[in-house]
Request: fold
Amino acid sequence: MNDCDDTTPRSFKVALACGGTGGHLFPGVAIADVLKQNGHEVFLILSDKKVDQAASSSIHHPHITLPSVAWQKGKRLRFLTSFPKVLHRCRTVFKDHCPDAVLAMGGFTSLAPVLTARRWKKPVFLHESNAFPGRAIRLLARWADTGFVGFEKTISRIPGVPCHVTGTPVRKSLRQLDREACVRALGLKVDRPVLLVTGGSQGAVAINRLILSNLDRIKSTFPTLQIMHLCGLHEDLPGVCRQYANHGIDAQVHAFFDRMDLALGAATAAIGRSGASFMAELVAVGLPSMLIPFPHAADNHQLENALSLSELGAAIHFDEQTADAGIFIKKLEILLKDDAQRSRMRAVMSGLDRPDSAQVIVSHMSTLVGSRRFNEKGSEKSRQSTNAQGRSGQSHSSHQVSTVS
Reply:
């Protein structure tokens, strides 16, 4: 049973499940910011993964942690044994916080909050950034009221739930960047190009190896290049730093960096995976990029993401499994030395950007939550009226019987 009373007719509280990866977390934070700006309350549900815990110190919203469990090969027994505890913990959290709705950003951190919301008959919203929806979103769609997607083609892949194409929200701070200020804040030189290399919030071994194995060619081809390399929490950070130093390349290396606004704002170009959230940030900033899809991503969704930009001329696609070092350097030359190509990429990205994405999502949520409350109040009034008529009828019948006798 739901122990929470509805006492806020105009504002509402959202449990926003966005833990597990940066691709879930950062768009979730962007939506949370807009919810708060619109007078609503929000608390984030994170996982106990390193990426969530590393980023939590920079999150200015209330948040709680649920143990991470995923339905993955080799971990299914652990899922079956641990999920009941996760569900119990989630129900306790909901009793304490009393959310009016749940927004799930994907990943199995969303499962317990969605199931708890359905038990309490609260609205459930989903957001899927990728062109091909993840397993968690496909599973949760059966319990959702409304879905929000980053790509038009995604709608047909989430059957059974009405969806709106909203794009993927990015943090507001990414739209207020000054390159020179960002470069100086990072301690880099303004008059030299900056290449941002990142494998996402969890790093990418293959991208790290691709860059490090080509440092000789990078140094000779781009002698003034500065590199901002986010290598991931699992990488040998001192070892990566030594390799850059040995090749005489100016580089800043971080395992995890919570000021991506500075990194994106300072960069001349970027190399990274084609996660949908990262791509949305590239588009918002207008940053030319080389996208290297993770070849083992579920349903090869990162390839579809990358092609959605590269086929329009908004990015360069590189296949790590089939392309050699020579092709990599050649594509990197186009990215860093062809000013006209970068200008064309920025022009295409400006037409793809969705700066109102988070606000559109919040507006749809407000409409449905408000409608649900109206219907609930209408039903309650109807029940009260029926009960009152029933009591009145019982009293009148009793009086008539008394008179007859």
